[in-house]
Design goal:
10 strands; BirA Bifunctional Protein, domain 2; alpha+beta; 8-stranded mixed β-sheet; 39% helix; two-stranded antiparallel sheet; 361 residues; 11 helices; single chain; 2 domains; elongated
């Protein structure tokens, strides 16, 4: 029995003090190995009487279980410690560029958004933003949409499941409503962002990007709206003469309303700005409907204004000759490398947006 006591008093403290897995393994072999201290004692059981064998064997098994449990616990601790130390020493800085150096590219949608914001900023517009998930009031009701309007139906709108009537916004116009509800007059803002509709073809996707503008004051008229948009398109395409036309249209939130088309060519599978080749509708616009002003708490007898909205994705297609809108969202690195833009060359009006310096693909 004294041998068991000695082993317990020597081995258990040694196990808890083992600093490495190698040291711990040496202790295990010395005690539990083929020639270990406990193994040698177990071999001596055969020479004992049945009573001694039973008593000593029980004590021996208890000690063996204690040492095995202590060994397992210490081993788990040292293994975890070793892993943590390895992770600490082998950390890879994923922010570093790969070797050899491969330069990334700015997505055309991000690039065009920055170009448009640079233009509108110089014209005195402020940036406004709002949530992607909207309620019926801001997305439809406050914008003078009748209850029977097709846009409210499931065929055109993504409704949130069990969302209490919430939807994925179908346009960025709710930002205009929120701005009119919260900001002092006069107002001059642009609102870029993602929008969602049930549509999918070469020029439509279920998720796309819009930018909308809103001007509210006491003297703004339709002539100001047309002049503003023509100047924006001249600056964006960096040409003095952009072929455009305005057609009468209808929108619930503007009156009178118009659609603006831009002259383009689809030859050789590419979109290009061109006269006499064809037309592509790029935006809707008009004077803000009096009902929309009233819904936001603005007196339509005192204030008026104009609003417009157009797709950023289509603008990118037109300016940079991208034939299919769906490729924007496919994540093909080859297309991003071809149509993408060099980082850090940020669009600015004083150096040129893209063609005259500043941005080079």
């Amino acid at each position: 029995m004294s041998d068991l006591t000695t082993i317990r008093e020597e081995v258990l403290p040694s196990l808890t003090k083992a600093a490495t897995l190698a040291e711990l393994e040496e202790l295990r072999v010395a005690v539990l190995g083929k020639k270990g201290r406990l193994t040698e004692l177990m071999k001596s059981l055969g020479a004992m009487s049945p009573e001694e064998r039973k008593s000593f064997g029980q004590e021996l098994n208890v000690l063996k279980e204690e040492i095995t449990a202590a060994f397992t616990e210490r081993k788990s601790f040292l293994e975890a410690e070793a892993i943590n130390e390895r992770l600490k020493n082998e950390t890879i800085d994923v922010t570093l560029p790969p070797r050899p150096f491969v330069q990334g590219r700015i997505h055309p949608v991000s690039q065009v958004t920055e170009e448009l914001l640079a233009i509108f900023s110089q014209m005195g517009f402020k940036l406004a933003e709002g949530p992607d998930i909207e309620d019926d009031w801001h997305n439809f009701e406050a914008l003078n949409f009748p209850k029977s309007h097709p846009a409210r139906q499931m065929q055109a709108t993504f409704f949130m499941k069990d969302g209490g009537g919430d939807i994925l916004r179908t346009h960025t116009s709710p930002v205009q409503v929120r701005t009119m509800e919260s900001q002092d007059l006069p107002i001059r803002i642009v609102a870029p962002g993602r929008t969602y509709r049930c549509d999918y073809d070469m020029t439509h996707t279920p998720m796309f990007h819009q930018i909308e503008g809103l001007v509210i004051d006491k003297s703004t008229n339709m002539g100001h709206l047309k002049g503003c948009l023509i100047d924006v398109f001249k600056a964006f395409f960096e040409v003095d003469d952009v072929p455009v036309r305005f057609r009468p249209s209808f929108f619930p939130f503007t009156e009178p309303s118009a659609e603006m088309d831009i002259g383009c060519s689809r030859e050789n599978g590419e979109f290009k700005i061109a006269k006499g080749k064809g037309w592509m509708e790029v935006l809707g616009c008009g004077m803000v409907h009096p009902n929309v002003l009233k819904a936001s708490g603005i007196n339509p007898d005192e204030y008026q204004g104009f609003a417009f909205g157009f797709g950023i994705d289509r603008m990118a297609m037109l300016k940079y000759g991208i034939p299919d809108l769906r490729t924007f969202f496919e994540g093909d690195i080859r297309r991003l490398k071809h149509y993408g833009f060099i980082p850090l060359d940020i669009p600015a009006m004083n150096i040129g947006l893209s063609l005259n310096g500043g941005i080079k693909r």
